[in-house]
Amino acid sequence: MKWFLSVYYSDYKADVDALKSQNGDVVSPDGQSLEPLRQFFRKRIWDDTDSWDEWVLKIQQRRNAIHAYKDRNLGDHAEFVNDVVKYSKFLSEMHGRVPYPDFT
Description:
Distance between the termini: 27 Å
Number of strands: 0
Low-confidence stretches: none
Strand content: under 5%
Number of helices: 5
Structural class: mainly alpha
Largest sheet: none
Radius of gyration: 16 Å
C-alpha cells in the first residue's frame, strides 16, 4: 500500500483526505501504520466492489496478535495458504493500477 502511494505521491499529497500530522502537514505514507493506510484506501482507492478492506483488517488483527499476550484466533493452515494466494492477487491488482515505466 505504501508502494502504491509512492507511485502516486503527487496525487496523494494533493488529496484532501491525505494523511496529515497534528499541525495539518501531509504525512508521508512511508511512516504510517497499517490502520491509517487502510482507512485512506477504503475511502479513496478501493471501490464498493473491492473486498480488500475486510481482508486487510483481518491480516492486521492477526498480525497484531504476535505483539500481544492475549489468546487470539490466528486461523489454520488452510486459511494461511488462502491468504497467501489472496496476497498475490492483491499485489497483482495494485501492480495493475500503476503505470508501466517508460524506459525509452
